[in-house]
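Z., the sequence and structure:
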Amino acid sequence: MKNFAIFVYWGAYRVNGVHLLTMIDDILDMSKIDAGKIDLNEGTVDIVRAVAGCCRTMRQRAADAGVGLLSKAVKFTPSGGSLFDGERVGGSAGRSRAGA
């Protein structure tokens, strides 16, 4: 049982480490964009996949803190507002153009 717990923790550390590295790379890319040293290519985003990845990352943290993320989203969304404001692309469910 102890070995299984170590395996689970190792997996969580690895996933979080990869996530942190991705965030650092994204920050560095944003700096390059601001400096005009990289071209930004617009494209489509698979919203379902992106949200699923965010949910996987945040689910345990929210549970540990006793926070209901959906209830918070509803609580802080103004009346008549939207939790997502994007444009559908090509009629494909779950795909949106960011910033459109």
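Residues 40 and 55 are 26 Å apart (CA to CA). Residues 2-34 form the longest helix (33 residues).

Let me know what you think.
H.
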